[in-house]
Amino acid sequence: MVSKRHGKVKGQYCSLSNLFLMISVLCSLATHAIAQDTKSSPTALSVYQVPAYERKPGVAGKISSVGSDTLANLMTFWSQEFKTLYPQVGFQIQASGSSTAPPALIEGTATIGPMSRELKPSEIRDFTRTHGYPPTVLKVAMDAIAIFVDRRNPLPGMTLEQVDAVFSETQFCGSNKAITNWSQLGVNDIGYRSPIRLYGRNSVSGTYGLFKVMALCDGDFKNTVNEQPGSASVVLSVASGTGAIGYAAYGYKTAGVRALPLGESLDSLIPLSIDTVRNETYPFARFLYLVINKKPGEPLPTLEREFLRYILSQEGQQQVLRDGYFPIREDVLVRQRRLLE
């Protein structure tokens, strides 16, 4: 913001030339301030260095998407904006969970398979057996699996060992005792003296599978975890009552919940922010993917190619920010665009 002491014109009857000079100075200062703000903002910098999308003629047809619930809103945003560019394009979006994407691509019932986790070796093997080549996987956004508590909960954060002890039956990450009450985490406020209520995703979810590996050291969930069909349901359940905790995609955060900082120790807690997700220092940072069927050495059909080019453009990455997720780094984005060529 430009300081008033720089912008104030002294004297009611200053000459026209002096007035133009002062306007020039103000514009220069404002331009410098905007540039400084852009440099200090990783969000602005990340998006404005991404190439803008250029509309192409003759794009029409239908795209079918089957897969991740985490990516459901993003797919909707992308499709709506793409349709404003190409009114002759139609979309069918089914968000049943990441595990439903590979079978749909193998069977040819989906054009695109959104996934919130990497493909399993068995899924790649099944696809390759059917089509004779592996699927193409594009990184299109970044997300984090957040540990949510209600916004009034005073807990400052959790260690990774505590996360495992809260959610896991097996405690493979090092804890020698399960955590079932808030007092074991140092929370003794009124309203937090009952057992911890646990919420998470169901087993077809990529978030479920990834959290199992990353947070439980591939252990087993407690049978007291209330499995929900979507991240929005997890967040709503945590926000609607005192004493609950749940894991879900950060993009579904609401004002009623708070994402806890996490770390190896309570002295090294890492908050969930755009910086810690994009540089992958937040423990549960992850990429979000779109899986497609692309024959090696052959171009994608025009409709699919243009939709994916839009997603990997300035406008597409702005939609990522709009939905509460994080744009991919520029170096990663360049590599993804090359996969379409």
UniProtKB/TrEMBL annotation:
Task: List cellular component terms (GO).
Answer: extracellular region; periplasmic space
Query: Which residues belong to the signal peptide in this entry?
Result: 1-35
**Which BP terms from GO are recorded?**
cell adhesion; phosphate ion transport
Pfam families listed in its UniProt record? PBP_like_2 (PF12849)
What are this entry's molecular-function GO terms? phosphate ion binding
Predominant localisation class:
periplasm
Q: Which family does it belong to?
A: Belongs to the PstS family.
From the Swiss-Prot or TrEMBL record, give the protein name. Answer: Phosphate-binding protein
